[in-house]
Specification:
Elements: E1 12-17, E2 22-27, E3 31-36, E4 41-45, E5 51-56, E6 61-64, E7 72-78, E8 90-94, E9 98-103, E10 108-114
Parallel strand pairs: 1-3, 2-4, 3-5, 4-6, 5-10, 7-10
Antiparallel strand pairs: 7-9, 8-9
């Protein structure tokens, strides 16, 4: 399935999937929520100015904000696997399963959660 979102759309977008990959290219939206079970999620922003909430139970999550220092408060969470961040983060807090921090002004909330069971 392919969904095209017009430039300038300012509503909330919710994507629920049970299997298969979810890919967003050149995103310019303001509020995105993705809930997936199996399959990867890859989001690429042309101009980042959005709330982003991604939750999966299996698969990789990639989120390219296309800024070195986006205005975001980050929460990256995974039960297993690795987390990596390629942007400047202030006040970083890390534990075995979670990475938190703020980039820029922290205006937008970015939560990426992979809640895969440890026994997988």
């Amino acid at each position: 399935m392919e969904v095209r979102i017009p430039n300038g759309f300012k509503g909330e977008i919710i994507v629920n999937g049970s299997s298969g990959s979810i890919v967003g290219k050149d995103l310019q939206i303001h509020d995105l929520q993705v809930n997936g079970k199996r399959g990867s999620v890859k989001l690429d922003y042309l101009h980042f100015h959005s709330e982003v909430h991604v939750t999966t139970t299996s698969g990789n999550v990639g989120n390219s904000l296309n800024k070195d220092e986006p205005d975001a408060t980050l929460l990256l969470k995974s039960n297993s696997g690795r987390r990596s961040v390629g942007i400047v983060i202030d006040d970083i807090q890390q534990s075995k399963k979670e990475t938190k921090g703020t980039s820029g002004t922290g205006d937008y909330e970015v939560q990426l959660k992979n809640l895969q069971e440890i026994y997988h």
